[in-house]
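Q: My labmate handed me this sequence with no annotations at all. I'd like to see what the chain might look like in three dimensions before we decide whether it's worth expressing. Could you predict it?
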Amino acid sequence: MSLKPLVIVCGIILLGGAARAQTNSNDLFERVELLAANGATQLALRLLDSSQPPVEETENWLRAEQARFSIFRKQGDWEMLTRRLDKVPAELPLIHQHRLFTHAVELLLQSGRGTESREYLRDLVWRGSGDSVQISYWRRLLIRSYLLQDKLVDAQIAMGRYQKEYAPTDQNWSYLYGLTLLKSGSFDQAAAQFSLGQSARARVLRLLSRLRAGIDGAKNVLDQAKSLYNKASSNKDEKDLIVLQRILSVQVEAARDTGDNVLEVKTLEKLFSQPLQPDVELPVEHEAADLWRAYQTLGAELGNQNNLLVGDDEAWLEQAEKIKTKNGIGSRSIYALLAMGSKSPQKKDEFHGLLYDTLKKSDLEYVAISLYTDMGSFASVDDIPHSVRHRVVRYAVQQRDIKLAASMAQDLTSTYAGQSPEEWMLNRANLAIYSGDLEGGERLLRELIGQAESFEPDMANRIVQVLFDLQSVDRYETAYELFQMMQERVVSEEQKREMYFWIGDSLRGMGQYAQAAESYIRSATYGDQDFDIWGQTARYHAAEALTQEGMLEDARKMYEGLLKVTTDPNRVMSLQRKMQDLWLLENNVVGGES
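A: Here is what I predict for the chain of 594 residues:
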């Protein structure tokens, strides 16, 4: 009951801070950055809206717009970004308009949105209002936009024209030209272009080009890639995750060329041990399905070495357990082979669980998440074994990835690790609500409550917490219905009393103030307790509901009754203030005039 006033107080504090930020731009941008970095992007945008510097303060105005664009990118809200660009003030000098549009184009390209970026780039290039340096830069961005979508013919034509006009020799151009050649399959020429660059990204793509051109053998490439990886990962503060990801991809390709199944599995596990970075220039060509195939190849190889017969699951399982300590990769490969090949649904479920658990024990749980969220290996979520889906749900909840948890829990009726069917249904309902599937969550709650004769206090409390979530998203009618059902089923007298209060809250949210007041009063007087702390709180809410209904005399009597039993000075002042407000309402006093 104290949460809502607290939220209001916090809101007042934040809005007050926003007003002060108008005189301190650095403070504004620091606060916006802090909020956005911690996931409060909507609050950050509201702060920018309330404290936007005037366009006359050009640098601060541009900085605010750039901060806003970065938030739109983080949200993936490209429609809002383009709407904002359409509203750039005409009085903003052209040079600053160029800065703003260029920044927006860079964000679009960083997110792989080539088509949208070209709409603005063509206008910038052909408008003719930029200087030679700007036009040159925009034309390079235009080439990047083609490469993002593998429009290689367009990219090559644009590069030919650019090279003819500017004769560029800088490292950035060599990298861009090399990327075009690599994507076009001209690997030897690409290697020559990348050799002109000194960046880590250029070096790794040179290595890939030389591997594909056959200039360097796969074993030589593996040695160079290992050295590159160690160097690239040594500085944790400046570590480029995309570079590390690209090196691992090169190692997978080279390991495959050498036929080294163990190294291929080991490298794929490393690649998929964390979320893949969005590499828009050169997306990772490997999928989790490749790891499944590599596991099965290595597993079959180990089985052949030990003369294991296909179909003798117990013998294969015994071998996996035998080598688990000394050869974890081999053990996991056998589990994967059994999991994907067993004819017994029960055994298949068991083997998948063993694979997941051994990955988790080896600090590779995200590899398991990658394997079981790869829809190239499973046609749908329904095809993923139930035991694994429960494990993924548990992981996702811990990581607060509600979308993943809800997708894995959907229509999953079995229980796991001692859960009762009721507990699992409640968890599914909770996940559905948090993921935005309100109807699905409500359906599960109706089923859960409706099929029970009674609820013990602990389970009742857990259900009530989920019903509060419904109230938080304004589903008051459903909450009212479900609280009524709960009121009939809770066995604790204290909880019966509480249900009347939550029913009152739901009715009040529905705008049925008179009925809400009655429910609050029933909560206050339940069990002949009346003026204890709970009862006083319920009566206070009843008075507020009566005021909203226009029953001012009834509300006054409620407040007077509370004043007679209240000894806390702060509460007395609050009640007296409420009485004064009632007098003003009764006498139609508005703005100090009657």
